[in-house]
Design goal:
The protein is of the alpha/beta class. It contains 14 helices and eleven strands. Helices cover 43% and strands 15% of the residues. Bound molecules: flavin mononucleotide.
Length: 341
C-alpha cells in the first residue's frame, strides 16, 4: 500500500522552467561523494529525476579540463539529467561559470547557498551569503541573465532559527529569477546533529510558486511519504541514503528489490568504477569517504569501516569485503547515526 502511494507521489510529472521531469526524487549535491564514478553507479540502477554534481568552485569552472579535473568530469550520457552545482561569492564568477555549464549541455545549474564549512564561509561563499541577501540576489540575477537553462538554488534556514527569515529569503530567490529551490531546514552552523525542521519546508512551499524540493533525513519509504504529505513539497532531494544504498531510487520506484547479494554486488561494481575513473590513490580516498555511509547500513558497520580504513592500498579493500561477506549480513533498520553524520 505505502509502496504504491510512494510510487504515485514520485512519478508525477513536474515542469521546471522549460523541462519536465517524470520523477520527483533527485540526488543531492555531495562533495567528494557525488563524483563521476558514483554517478555511474547510480545510473546502473536509475529511476531518479536528476543528479546533482559535487559543489564546484565557480572561479575555476571556465578554465577546467574535463579530462584532468577530478570534479569537473562527467559521462556524456548523463548530461541530460545532471545539474551542476556552483560555489562562489561574486556575481561575475558565478555567471561566467554558469555559461560554461550551459555550453556543456547540462540540465541546469545550482547555486550553493547552503555549505556551512568554515573555510567556505570565511571566503564569502555558500551559507555565508544568507547573511547578505542582497549579494545572494545579485548572484542569482547574474546567473539568471547569463543562461537559459534551469537555475536552482539550494539554501538552509539561515544563521538563526527563524522560519520567517527563510520565507523572506525564498521570495527573494524566486523574484531574482530562480526556477527551483532545494531547501534544507537546518540552521547554518548545524552539521546534521539536530533533526531538520520539516515544518519550515511547508512554509517555504507556501511562500513561492516555483517548485520546492525538501531535503534532510529522508532515510526510508515512511520518511519519504511523510515529507511529501506533511510539507506539500514538490520533490525530495536524497543525500546520505543514496550513498548508503545507491539503488534507493529504483527501490522506491519499484524496479529493484535489494537482497543480500545487492550489498556485495554494489561494492564490486563501485570498486570497478572508481578504478575506471580515478588513479588508485584518488579511488581509495573516495572509497573511504563513501564507506562511512555504506557501513551505516550494517549492525557491525563500525568494525567494517575501521578495517577498510586500515588498508594500505586500494587493492586490499577487496580482501576486507571478502572476509566481511563470509558471515551472514546483519542489516540495520535505520542507518547507524554515528556513521551517518
Ligand atoms: C559528506 C557530505 C558532503 C556534502 N556536500 C554538499 C555539497 O557539495 N553541496 C551541497 O549543497 N550540499 C552538500 N551536502 C549536504 C547534502 O546535500 C544534504 O543537504 C544533507 O546531507 C542533508 O540531506 P540528507 O539527510 O538526505 O543526507 C553534503 C553533505 C554531506 C554529508
Amino acid at each position: 500500500m505505502l509502496e504504491t502511494q510512494i510510487k504515485q507521489l514520485i512519478q508525477r510529472p513536474l515542469t521546471i522552467r522549460n523541462r519536465t521531469l517524470n520523477n520527483r526524487l533527485i540526488f543531492a549535491p555531495m562533495s567528494r561523494l557525488g563524483h563521476v564514478a558514483f554517478r555511474e553507479l547510480l545510473a546502473d540502477y536509475g529511476q531518479y529525476g536528476l543528479l546533482f554534481s559535487e559543489m564546484s568552485a565557480a572561479k575555476a569552472i571556465p578554465h577546467e579540463n574535463r579530462n584532468v579535473s577530478p570534479v569537473f568530469r562527467w559521462r556524456d550520457s548523463e548530461r541530460d539529467t545532471l545539474v551542476w552545482q556552483l560555489l562562489g561569492g561574486s556575481p561575475e564568477d558565478m555567471a561566467n561559470a554558469a555559461r560554461r555549464i550551459e555550453q556543456e549541455g547540462f540540465f541546469g545549474v545550482d547555486i550553493n547557498l547552503s555549505c556551512s564549512m568554515s573555510y567556505i564561509c570565511r571566503r564569502g561563499m555558500g551559507a555565508s551569503l544568507l547573511k547578505t541577501p542582497s549579494l545572494a540576489v545579485d548572484i542569482i540575477k547574474a546567473v539568471r541573465a547569463a543562461v537559459d537553462i534551469p537555475v536552482w538554488v539550494k539554501f538552509r534556514t539561515g544563521w538563526s532559527d527563524s522560519p520567517d527569515l527563510a520565507v523572506d529569503f525564498a521570495r527573494y530567490v524566486e523574484d531574482a529569477g530562480a526556477d527551483a529551490i532545494t531547501f534544507h531546514p537546518r540552521v547554518a552552523p548545524d552539521r546534521r546533529t539536530r533533526p531538520p525542521k520539516w515544518a519550515y519546508i511547508t512554509r517555504i512551499k507556501q511562500a513561492v510558486s516555483i517548485p520546492v524540493f525538501g531535503n534532510g533525513n529522508v532515510f526510508d519509504r515512511n520518511d519519504c511519504y511523510r515529507m511529501f504529505t506533511e510539507t506539500g513539497c514538490d520533490g525530495i532531494s536524497l543525500g546520505r541514503i543514496a550513498i548508503s544504498k545507491p539503488w534507493i531510487f529504483a527501490e522506491w520506484n519499484g524496479t529493484f528489490q535489494p537482497n543480500e547479494t545487492a550489498w556485495r554486488d554494489v561494492i564490486s561494481r563501485y570498486i570497478f568504477l572508481l578504478e575506471k575513473h580515478y588513479d588508485s590513490i584518488q579511488a581509495r580516498k573516495r572509497f573511504i569517504k563513501f564507506s562511512k555511509y555504506y557501513c551505516a547500513g550494517f549492525r557491525f558497520g563500525n568494525t567494517l569501516r575501521s578495517n577498510i580504513r586500515k588498508t594500505g592500498n586500494f587493492a586490499d579493500i577487496h580482501d576486507v569485503f571478502d572476509r566481511f561477506f563470509d558471515s551472514p549480513l546483519l542489516l540495520n533498520q535505520r542507518p547507524n547515526e554515528n556513521l551517518f553524520v
